[in-house]
Hints:
heterodimer; A: mainly beta; four-stranded antiparallel beta sheet; 1 helix; 23 strands; rod-shaped; disordered N terminus; B: mainly beta; six-stranded mixed beta sheet
Amino acid sequence: MKKSFPNIVRAVYGFIGIFFVAMIATEFLPVQLVSAYPAALIQRSLSVTSSANGTITTDMAGNPAAAGSGGNGAETGETFSFILPQTGNIGSIDFLYCTTPLAGTSCIAPTGLNASTVLAVQSQTGWTDTGGSPFVISSASTSDIKVSRTTPGDETNISTAVAISFGGLSTDYITNPTTDNSTFFVRITLYSDNAFSTPVDQGTVASSTATQVNITAKVQEELAFSVGTTVTSPAGNCSPFGDTGALTLGDSNGVLSPLITYSAHSYFRVSTNATHGLVIEYSGKTLANGTNNITAIGTTAANSTPGIPQFGLALDSSDTESGSGYSFAYLAPSSSPVNYSQGAGTITSGGTAYFAFDTSSVTNPKIISSSTGIIICDTGSVRYMANIAYATPAGIYTTTITYIAVPTY
Amino acid sequence: MPKIKYAFAECLLAVMIGISLSSPVLVRAAALNFRSLEISSPVPSAVNDYAFTFTLPDNTNVGSISFLFCTMPLVIEPCDSPAGLDASNGVLAEQSGETGFVIYQQDSNMILLERPPAPGHSEQVQYIFSNMANPSNPVQTFFVRISTFPTFDGTGPYTDYGAVASATSTGVSINTVVPPILDFCAGLTIPGNCSTASGYFIQFGDFSSLKTSAATSMMEVGTNANSGVVITVNGTTMTSGSYVIKNLASQTANTIGTSQFGLNLRANTNPVIGNDPAGGSTMLATAYDVSNEYQFNSGDLVAYSPGPTNLAKLTVSYIVNISSSQTVGIYDTTLTYICTASF
């Protein structure tokens, strides 16, 4: 009795037989068949100019961030870099932006990402491109950039990275995904032809938006102002004067003479971050003893005349006290309408130093010095000068001159 | 079906309106610009004027302005009142720019101005408060936090903000002494002050009954003596042993050939000699204050000042006449001028 096999079994055996015959035959072909799968790009990366999300164009203070800078996620630039896995012609490249990396799977465009504003290839380096032409934009859509060569070029560099860049300009840019901390992928496919038909190399790179770190610091209004008569060093911290402000004017016993002019100095020290400057004002009366007083020298700066009652003040730029006295880097003596800038010089009769004093300062403080901006640490030296006449009534003459710092922030 | 569509649309519209009404309005406070505080006196605890000046940054409604006095400027920090500062008696003395404000509320470190809310203007404003007491610390930087509000009573979020600073300081106390001054000197010449005085010897030469011998000396005096000075001349007439040239006991004109010794302090024409007093405010004694009239009595007052006088230069003119019977001899005398000041 003849045993017969079912048709399905015969079909299986037939397929197996054909498979083995084909296997044996291919071993003896003169040329090995080319693989149908693209090779993997090596050491591939995506460098972005900004990781800010695509809605951000300014810093937290509202200052515009330039296109292509770290704070501008709406107008970014991107550079793709990789090593070609094999030599051969390259005619086109496709950069496809997706939320997942695997080639061949469906591609969902990252929310908010927009590459349609890419107008040109900004740079392309490392490519040998033998016999070919440079890459140019073939098309740019929301999530896909295609570049191609008019003539495919032969790539022989498989040892160092090649790169290609897009965007980074205010007129040519890529907008990042609009969600913070959002990873996105770019599937890169290289084709041997310029019609995006024959893939030869492939790889995926990843990048991510990131929440911007906004750093806030407050700088408060600052003013340090002190007045003294004993000069002390400002040291490194603009140390204030700490004495009582007592000042004796005259000879060693504090006595004036109709024959000799005497002077003495007080000091003020100031620092401020007032951006619109600061003025130093003085306020006070002339020297007085009851109803008797030593006549103020007036609002027109004048020099000393012994024997004539005079009381005046002026800033003395020569009184530097080895760096602890007069030191104006930001302040300037007031020279108009009343000149208080000429306190340096001699105080003999007709001396070279000039003084002024406005008696109305007692009710309307007068500006003796001012700055137009901040002051790190300036010290002013105020020189007081007094003369008396023979007929000036005897007595103890006093006055208090106060100084007022008025910063404008 | 249409009813269902309308119901859905109404529901959507209601949700949208609800979202719109419930969304917080993000208001960003702007900075008050060019802001400053000028105090009229920096003396600790002094009661003085505070002038606040600043520029409003926008045209939003302004109903109230708060001035909060603190040791630190930042609005996010607690406000510690500067020790001694007292704004509770402050009075709004002047206002410019945005006006119409009155003090709504105040205490030791706060003043709140109010007015019916009205649009502000981007302009400089100034508010001056009088009767403000400074902090009591001798060297005290203090800050004033200024805030504007759209409400009249300072409630709700502020619109604009800025801090200003000022500082107390004790000032410079200048002491000096004007001593009792009496500057008096005598000499033949005194071209400047007393330090330039020189000469003390007058040589008349040979007397003659036919001519007058004349010479001068000088004095200079300055004083701050309240009751002034008196200057006397002291000495004898010219003598030679027991022989004398007669002094002029009263004002007498120069007479050649007559024994005369006298002096005055005026410019004379007979003979031409002397000068009137110069400078100061001294006065001459009547007996020595007439030109061409001479006198000499020891102890006579020759000049004085009723009060302080600046330097006065006095020229003393001497005349000597002899008669033909004058005994031969060498005649001399020493005159001493005494200046007495009464302080």
